[in-house]
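Z., the sequence and structure:
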Amino acid sequence: MALISIMNLTKESAIEIGLKVMNDIEYDWWDKEDENGPRAIFIDSKTNPLDDEEYWIVAFPYGKEDYGENIEYLIRVNNDSKIAINIVYRNGFIKLGFGETSEKYYISERRP
């Protein structure tokens, strides 16, 4: 039986969640003037057959001044729960938590 993808979030709402994450954890180092971001892409079992979960990757460019080209913060947002799970970036990873009562994201774990 084939899996049928149903997008619960739109691209725009995934980007809004990404912006909320960046604001809540006070991670404003991304390049707000760059024409390439933020942007979002939907990932499902057809795109990534190794993962049953459907999610959005929201990308925020940064580092053009330091590296000569943009690299990106990548925020993974669960399509069903509409909750951001983590952020991956050059040489790092942030596991996110979400306070149900405060309705704010926080850094649960950071590596390195």
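Residues 11-24 form the longest helix (14 residues). Strands lie at 39-43, 55-62, 71-78, 84-89, 92-99, 104-111.

Let me know what you think.
H.
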